[in-house]
Amino acid sequence: MRPSQFVKNVALLASSAVFAQAIPVALSPVISRLYDPAQFGVFAVFMSAIAIISPLTTGRYDIPILLPRSNANAIAILCVALISTAAITLLLAIAVSIHHFVAGGEIIVLLLPLLVMIAGFVQCSYAWENRNERYRNMAASRIGRGVFLPISQLLLHTFGSVGLVCGQIIGEATAAAWLLVCQRHEIALIKSVSVSRIMRQATKHASFPLYSVPAGLVNVFSAQMPLLLLSSFFSIETVGFYGFTNRVLAAPLNLIANAFLDVFKQQASRDFAADGSCSRVFADTFWKLAILSAPPFIVLGLFGPRIFSFVFGEKWIISGEFARALSILFCVRFVATPLSYVLFITGRQRMNLFWQIGLFVVTGAALAIGFADESVETALWAMSFLLTPMYVLNLWMSYRSAVGVVTR
To answer: What are the residue ranges in the chain where pLDDT is below 50?
Structure first.
């Protein structure tokens, strides 16, 4: 892929991500006034459960779809990922049904398997579209999600937190429906794959469920630990303020970072397969991400509370305080996360697992500092200052892997 083509593909996905966030950002001031912090807190806990289950859904077999040179082997890996998604969805549906009808509980829990299934399919479909460089299809699906998700949440506000969850499901279903239409011709390819080839590819890439699933779970627990522990030690309103901060900042930034990731991992996979190194595309992507991330996070660090209070209303000024505390961490994580895909390309899944365990321990230590001080802000500032060096370390590991100098 020529450098100019790399930039065009990133620009396509990034612009679609920005456009996809235009309506959610425009409607955020309205939605923030229709839902209260407690409802956002319930929604945040629900989405944290989805995030915890996500690494299990595909068995991480969506990652190696880009690696084989043969399309036949790639479609076999896709089948493994889809089979894993179906199995996890079925098991989850049985578990939540038994829990709901035997032990009782909120009806919102019954929506978990549906969203897990849709999200798993979208994850697999994105990997296949990325392999085939069909970035327009990926961009269109993200725009569809970005349009229908916030509008649905707006229209369903009378249902409270259930409305937030149903809006999320409608947005994901829109993306899934578009991808299914785009991939209708691949159904014949899936039907033609032999069971023996599927089994061979599942065995060949067994390191992904063996190391990447635990690493993914540890990563998710690290990311969701603040939400889970905040809900245990502080009020549900505090969880809502933290969840709203992530909704406003992390979600849009992740879309842009994922635009870089989608193009980067396709090009880096090819470069590493051909030359045993992907340092050039690594360096180019690093500088683009760094230049893109610095200005907004500097502004956020200086004026976060004022911005949140002015845009979303006075009641969300606490979310602005949280955003200011986390601005340094968000900035470095925005750069490091897409580039860490190098560890999968180069077969350093075990190294990634050890780093994820370290991240989990440091996250727990940072939160413990805050809880000992009985202050949420202390916990978030501690997270920012302790986790930022962890992501700098991750960047160094990724670079060393990209140039092919780290032993497996």
So the answer is: 406-408
